[in-house]
Design a protein that fits this description.
Blueprint: E1 7-11, H1 15-27, E2 32-37, E3 48-51, E4 56-59, E5 64-66, H2 70-76, E6 83-84, E7 87-89, E8 92-94, H3 100-108, H4 117-127, E9 136-139, H5 144-149, E10 158-161, E11 165-171, E12 174-180, E13 183-186, E14 192-195, H6 199-206, E15 213-222, E16 235-238, E17 245-249, E18 252-257, H7 267-282, E19 291-302, H8 306-311, E20 323-325, H9 338-350
Parallel strand pairs: 1-2, 1-14, 2-10, 7-16, 14-20
Antiparallel strand pairs: 3-4, 5-9, 6-9, 7-8, 11-12, 12-13, 15-18, 15-19, 16-17, 17-18
Helix pairs in contact: 1-9
Length: 352
């Protein structure tokens, strides 16, 4: 690391940006770390919020952590897993190895047959090394902000909320000024920058080739009584259904639908269709539709096919000597997930 007066500017307050602040602080306790976040909160898609309609906190998107995700597990100090992953198909419970294609779709937000071969190799050799045996997993329980985001907020010295990067100025191969919607920040020759922007924002601002994106839909249902799934499972994958994954936590049942571009149903129509699928799994009659919230993430992740994977950078370094990049999308040959986000932060900080 640099001298005691080192100053680091981190653009983006998602998991990657916050982890960058953590890793910088651990290497250089006296560093000045300034984080800029366009929204009024940190976390990006990895956060929770209070939903007035449901009357409770919900996750912006349910996140799953596998037993092999060592870096995010270390970050969370996570030791407890909900269960082995199982799949439901035509009234039967199936072991994890019967749902490989569904698992890859969930991890990559891209159909198995379209996913980059290099990404598949990473999944099977580094993330699924124990298949066809048991596959352990944990998932967020509508407390992402509390358990993951809030503990990381102490690492930056300053967090500037509502700061959206619009443009920058370059001089002698370095970025000399950052232009935000709330003003400009002049950089000294010793200042270092880490961009932890999402792929769409980074490509737009820094004029790099643009990615294609795949959407994800999350639905949260709140019932008057806790919901039970077959064998009291808390996590269940579904085959041949609109709903792909069910997550149960107390009185909230959450649903994830990956690669959801072809779903044109309106919120109420979709919520009702999925609820009927859930009731069929539970062998219950869909007497009424409970309170629900549909969250649509149009640019949830980059499409992780061969074309998009080839556009991903091979390093955290850029053509500017004081700019480094982090984010799950920057990890070539990796699925865009929490584990990749943490790894990207480690890689970026190691180059400072």
């Amino acid at each position: 690391m640099r001298s005691k007066k080192s100053r680091y500017h981190i653009i983006g307050g998602g998991i990657s940006g916050l982890c960058c602040a953590k890793f910088i602080r651990e290497k250089n306790p006296s560093a000045e770390i300034i984080l800029y976040e366009a929204a009024n909160h940190c976390g990006g898609r990895c956060c929770s919020f209070y939903d007035k309609h449901l009357g409770t906190d919900i996750d912006n998107a349910t996140h799953v952590i596998l037993g092999a995700n060592k870096n995010i597990l270390k970050l969370l100090q996570k030791k407890k897993f909900h269960s082995d992953i199982k799949f439901w198909d035509e009234g039967k419970l199936l072991q994890a190895h019967h749902g490989i294609k569904e698992a890859v779709l969930a991890m990559c937000n891209t159909p198995f047959g379209q996913t980059s071969r290099a990404i598949l190799q990473t999944i099977f050799f580094r993330l699924f090394p124990f298949l066809p045996y048991k596959l352990k997993a944990a998932f967020s329980e509508n407390n992402l902000s509390q358990t993951l985001i809030t503990p990381l907020l102490s690492y930056p010295d300053t967090i500037n909320y509502g700061y959206k990067l619009l443009s920058f100025h370059e001089k002698d191969g370095r970025i000399s000024r950052l232009d935000f919607n709330k003003g400009s920040v002049e950089l000294t020759v010793d200042d270092q920058i880490i961009s932890a922007l999402d792929a769409a924002a980074y490509c737009r601002i820094f004029k790099t080739p643009e990615f294609n994106f795949n959407p994800i839909i999350n639905i949260h249902y709140r019932t008057s009584m806790p919901i039970t799934l077959p064998r009291n499972l808390k996590l269940l994958g579904l085959k041949n259904c609109t709903a792909q994954w069910l997550f149960v936590h107390d009185k909230i049942l959450s649903v994830t639908i990956s690669n959801a571009a072809d779903i044109s149903l309106k919120d109420e129509e979709l919520a009702l269709k999925v609820w009927r699928e859930i009731c069929a799994v539970r062998q219950r009659e869909a007497a009424f539709l409970p309170a629900y919230r549909v969250l649509r993430h149009k640019k949830a992740t980059i499409c992780q096919n061969e074309k998009n994977n080839s556009l991903r950078p091979c390093s955290a370094a850029t053509c500017y000597s004081n700019l480094f990049i982090a984010g799950d999308w920057t990890m070539k040959n990796w699925p865009a997930c929490l584990e990749a986000a943490v790894l990207s932060a480690q890689r970026a900080v190691s180059l400072l």
